[in-house]
Amino acid sequence: MNSEILFFLLAGMILVFSILTVTTRRILRAAVYLLFVLVSTAGLYFMLNYNFLAAVQLTVYAGGIVVLIIFSILLTSHISERAKMAGKFQGVMSALAVVAGATLTLITILNYSFPAKSLNEVPSDVKSIGRALVSYNENGYALPFEVVSILLLAAMIGAIIVARKEKTADKNIK
Amino acid sequence: MTGTIPLQYFLIISTLMFFSGIFGFLTRKNLITMLMSIELILNSVNINFVAFNRYLYPDNLHGHFFTLIVIAVAAAEAAVAIAIIINIYRNFRSIEVDKVDEMKF
Amino acid sequence: MTDYTYTLLIPLIPLALFLFTGLTGHKFKPVVSGLIGTTGLFVVTILSYMTAIRYFWTDHVEGMGYTSLKAFETTWIHFSDKLTVNLGVLIDPISVMMLIVVSTVSFMVHIYSLGYMKGEVGFARFFSFLSLFTFSMMGLVLATNIFQMYIFWELVGVSSFLLIGFYYTKPSAVSASKKAFIVTRFADLGFLIGILMLSFMTDTFDFQTLVSPTGPAITQVGGAAFLGLSGITWALILVFMGGAGKSAMFPLHIWLPDAMEGPTPVSALIHAATMVVAGVYLVARLFPVYSLAAPDALHVVAWVGGFSSLFAAIIACTQTDIKRVLAYSTMSQIGYMMLALGVSGYGGHDGLGFMAGNFHLFTHAMFKALLFLGAGAIIHAVHSNDMKDMGGLRKYMPITHITFLIACLTIAGIPFLSGFFSKDEILTAAFHHNMPLFIIEFAVAGLTAFYMFRLYFSIFWGKETHYHHTPHEAPATMTIPLLILAFGSIFAGYLPFHELVTSDGMPFEAHIEYAVAIPSVLIGLLGIAIATIMYRKQTEIPQRLATGFGYFYNWAYHKFYMDEVYLFVTKKIIFNYISRPVAWFDRHIVDGFMNLIARVIERSAYLIKGFQSGRIQQYGFVFVSGTIALVIIFIYLW
Amino acid sequence: MTINDFLLMRHEIMLVLIALILLIVDLNLKPTQKPWIIPVAMVLFIIHIIVGFLPAPEGTLFGGMFRSTPLINMMKNVLNIGVFIIMLQSYTWIMKPENREKMSEYFVLMFSTLAGMYFMISSGDFLMFYLGLETATIPMAALAAYTHHQTKSAEAGVKLILSSALSSGILLFGLSLIYGSTGSIYFTDVAASFGAAPMQVLAFLFFFSGMAFKISLVPFHLWTADVYEGSPVNVTSYFSVISKGAASFILILILYKVFFQLIEVWQNVLYIISVLTMVVGNLFALRQKNMKRFLAFSSIAQAGFILLGMMAGSQMGMTSVIYFVLVYIFSNLGAFGVVSAIEAVTGKVEMSDYNGLYRTNPRLSLLMMLAMFSLAGIPPVAGFFGKFFLFTSAASAGYYWLVFIAVLNATVSLYYYLMVVKAMFINKSDEPIAFFRSDNMTRAGLLLSAVGIVVIGFWSQVYEMINNLSVGLF
Amino acid sequence: MNILTLFVLIPVLTTLAIGFTKNMKQTRLVSAVGMSIQLILAAILVFMYLGERNAGNTAEMLFTYDALWFPSLNIHYAIGVDGISVAMILLTAIVVFAGIFASWNMDFLSREFFISLILLATGVFGFFISIDLFTMFLFYEVAVIPMYLLIGIWGSGPKEYSAMKLTLMLMGGSALLMVGLLGIYFYSAPSGGQLTWNLLEISKITIPIEMQRFLFPFTFIGFGILGALFPFHTWSPDGHASAPTAVSMLHAGVLMKLGGYGAFRVAIFLMPEAAQEQAWIFLLLTSISVVYGAFGAIWQKDLKYINAYSSVSHCGLVLFAVLMMNQTAFNGAILQMISHGLMTALFFALIGMIYGRTHTRMINEMGGLMKVMPFLGVVYVIAGLASLGLPGLSGFVAEMTIFFGAFQHTDSFHRILTIMAISSIVITAVYILRVVGILLLGPIKDDHYLHLEDAKWHERLSTVTLVIAIAAIGIAPLWLSDMINVSLGPIVDKISITGFQFVSLF
User: How far apart are the CA of B19 and the nearest CA of chain C, in angstroms?
Assistant: First the structure.
């Protein structure tokens, strides 16, 4: 029973803050709402017994990305600045598309009879996760783990060359 | 720990989150808020993966690791995106999405 | 059977002359070309006469009919396994007769032209064209099959075109040559379709097979009936259409008067003696088929001939251009010949009309060539075509005068001259077979005499005109042919045509039928008398008559407005109401449609450019909607 | 790790190594010595290409997450050649003073994205596929925004990163559903149990939208033109040939290997999308005045043709797609090479600037004409063969009307390709681009693409080799 | 080496050689040498061909050579000729030869001009020797595309528009064609076995009739567009009007023949059943084409437009004959192609030469040119006479064969169309004589024309070559027509086994 209350609490938070994130006029607030969503999601992960994942979610997402976002907001906007909202037409059309898409997707997904839960279960404690992460056999994830490092390296280099100020950079600024 | 909550509830949450993310992408006027919408989308996908993994296929950790990787990718994406947005800010003195339409037609 | 292969030279010599003078003519003095051409023609004439003598007399076994024989034949092209076109030389009575006509007149005209065309620009060209014409005409005459005939038929047409348009810097000559070509071309369309039908029904082009009384054309009268006439009848009517075009039968005659724009020797050769009678020759060639398989077609021939002769005779009475008078007279006389063929039966004395038609063709060639050459001499002397500019020329040009008079008398049907005999036979044939036509022809005989002497008196008698240059008699090169032809005009009538040229090759007895001959001579004399009264001296009578007849005179003077009708059809209808709309339609509708496609593409490219608005969110919107659309289509609609 | 394992993964390992070496070398170079990076990169890459052509074993690594077959190896070789040409052609541009600073980063980013593509092509599961896809995309945004003092470049970068994030989000959602319905992310397992239930179709369509974004199919293409226009020319050519080629390769592999039970669906999807893509791509290309933008739309239209080959669902189809991509690499690089050479020297990119080019720079014009003809599918250059085989495979599956529509579109495309030819050869100009000599590197790059355009069509062995390696549906 | 391959190789080598020339004089010399060799080769081919036939070789195609090209698609470089192709090759060689000399003084970008021109010729030669549908299509497109540059760069008037229109319409045609050819390929082995592009092999089987019904219109219209089939002919007037002399010559003289040849060789030959079913539609279109083109020509004022419309009419006759589907008509169609090719090339050559002197092509601005340029005038008249079907020139032979072939159909539908087609010869006479009358005859309109020169030696060479060819065929058509006839045998056999009756409307 507890778990259900917890679930509905988290679900409610996720939904409300998701919607608030995309509708609030204050940018900084949106970032905070996003943080709430991410934290609630981490709560869901805890519920599902993926503790490691939840931890990663909190550190990387909530701790890393949101902070990055907030910094960049502070860098580019005034705190009190209110974001412009989309025009009526754009808003209505987007809402229509989104509602239609959500409805269709939900109907389709809910009508699908998912297979029964498989019987055997692998442990999802940190130890087995760690083992899987460096295993290069079936169900091992060494390769993605390596590749993601390449991606992060490349992204870092990319971010640096884009964001780095140059001597010539100011010349053409409007 | 999930008790009697059916899988579908998770899916509903994730789907709604996904589409609110899309809604945000389509309507927010600030590049950074658009980026935030993207994070919502990715997050919803993660919920899906995790829920499937736990509910249907506990015999493997695919969903789990998929989520893990997606989080990492999201971080990389956010990094580059923010770098570019800052660059945009330098160039346009604004991060309003409607100002970024120099090239069209 | 004797070898006639040498007759191949008869067409080939002129061809060689044409090529030689045509390609190298500008390298020599003009007169050289003329002399070469004339010499060549002399050889041709000799060969022709030799052939005639051999065919009709030397090689002929007394009492036997004249058969046709192929002197030479080669394959030209295979149309299908059944239809093969050959080129060859066919010798039979009518072709031999035509050889004489063509070679004689052509030779005369060559000699005449040496004088007439002297000093003209393009002297060599003139002679090469004459050779071309002679070649074509010979090929036509000697054709072994109807397709060969069609080939040369077209070639004659083009030589005629070239010669009419000889003075190509003169707009009237150019348009006359165009007109002649196109009108005859139109007629040839009928000829060609006729050939197509005929060959389709009979699987042959060959004349010998076609006209053989046991051949497919006559025995298997095939073809579905259409509008009440059998297929073969239609085929022959269409073939006759070609003949009518060449022979200037109503209503395809309009080119002939205009064709007088050509040099006068050309008129004499082509438009009086040879080419224009090709139609008659064509009908005569196919006569057995007409007569035995399609009498209805023959009726058409008769009536067209009869009507044309009357029609032309009436117009001839009103014209003032001497060459045009002669042209209408030619048309009228050819009408006679057609009529003769049309009223003829096949075989024996029934074939009188056939014989008479060919006979008249022969005699007419002599006296009409003479008339034209005489007219040429006159024009040469006074530098005008119009009889109003002439008068009293008998003093200046005695030889011309005499020969011209002989020709006039001949055509008027005065007894003992050649015209009398041939015309008399025609009237007799008509009298026996078709009374209404006889009456028409009887009237035309009178009209003929009248307008010929109207012409004669206006030129040689009448008012005394003051000439800028005193007219003088033509040089010998011109007068000698006149004399020779006058000789022919007088004596050609004594040839025993009824023995030589008959419908079935067998001779028959012919004699003068006085019941016809006497009235016809009388009406001829009457015509002459009226003309004498009216035109010998300058009088008021013609003027008064003209006003008296009023509208009728005007109609006739304007050639019954036939030219205007044609002009209306060609200029107004074809040019303005067909060609112009077609051209417009092509540019604006058909091509416009193609351009429209291009414009629609361009326009839609412009219209959809809004999708590429440059805004990321719109891109996202389209992206999402695209996905949703795919979902709707493939999950819920498929 | 055995030598065999290395051979299986040689492309990826080599590329990562090269990138690392370049980074290390770069750290040890003084600013004035920067240009040394170029020969180093070239030499290393040539070694890479040569190694790539070594005999290819077949096998899987990492428990099936990575697989390599001669076919996949060949796809990578094809892309390698394209990248090499791009490297040659970018010499002039990279040597410009404002770019010298970032020279090594340029190569590193390019190689890491290339490695991402190779991982993607070689992926044996959706995780590696996704990761490869993102590795191939995210640094690309940085490349697009490379010249950051230009607003256009920055705009291109932001458009790319945001659109691609959206698209990969949707793609991911599809992947999550696929996982949900099959319980595995391995291709072989998914293929075995994937059916055609509505949700699976939905999952497939989400996945497909994401892929369509990468190949820039209508209506998922809108980012293309702007990004192509805004990016530096050489990055654009990298986008338009390498990135698109890699995405086509993996799409056809996944369609054939994983979603073969959905063939009814995806054939029809491809039908609609290919018609839309050809038509819309053409209609936009018609109006373009900027060469880069023009080539962007032309490459959109070309992508529509690629789908024709995919639709066949047969060995012939795959052969024709790979062959076409090969031809397309040479043709498009020929065109972009000329644009790049001209932009690097004169800064001119408008079509009207090309007026009278033939009088001043005949060789460039001839190459451009060859490239245009090849893109339009005019014989005897290779494009004709590429298009013809695509159409042949579509027809082999009975899509005659689609072939007809496609060839009509090819005709429309001929119009705008000829407009370029017209500008260079027919139009007169008061001030045409003056004669210039490109440096040897660029010339070598142009020459290579010219040779490819001319030779590949006639040289049937190329086609046969691809055909021997290609596979049909399971 | 196979003699036929030389027909492709020599032009290619010539273009390469031209690439090394320095100036116009060298360029044109190289071109002339190359194309003279080609002409000689064509003549040799004719003799070799006739020799083989006389020696009793009854194979459908002679001098065949077959090399596998794309094994997996069974694409071959397969070449071979029968009487029909030999005739077309000879025609092409003559026209190209004449074309080179007609553009002797092309001094603007002469290298590029001759290269494009000879490239075009390469395509045409290749097309005629191919018996593999793929190579055929390849050469077809090779022949079409240089037109764009040739018209666009060296043309006159609204050249860009015309060039674009021509190219796009012809490429649109090849769009249809592509569908047709692919369909044929995939049904070339209906009872299993190896699919093939080879014409001869496909002709041995019967493509399923439902497929034929679908594919025939594509193939026929596809080729028909190049053959100026109404209503897809509008590229022709504009294209010809804007093209430079030699290009008009080659295009109208040879390239348009690809359409008729292809329609015959591919559409009719391989899909006779559908052809017989659908012939009536196209017969209507082509007979409209014939009359319509002729009427369209009457109203035109531009010499080239007149000739272009006249080509529409004459080429319509080619397709018309092809659709009549019997041996005589086929023979006529081939003869008409050759004849029209020669005389229209002659026409365009003359128009170009006249234009080069008077700088106008409007007939009402000219007049009396016969006086100042008798040589050109006479040749023009000869060309005109050939065009209106004068016996002794080639047009007559061809037209007559067509009419006799067409008339073999006994139903009224075919008969009426035949008569319609025949009536075009009168209309032709009208516009030809109108032009001759206005242009050449009559008084000289403009005093400037008095100083114009008559033809130079290269112009004479160019026109005389064509005149000789026209006259040779016109006077002695037997060898040509028999050469074609023999080769028509297998084709007619293939068609007749099908045993379909024509759909009669009446």
Answer: 10
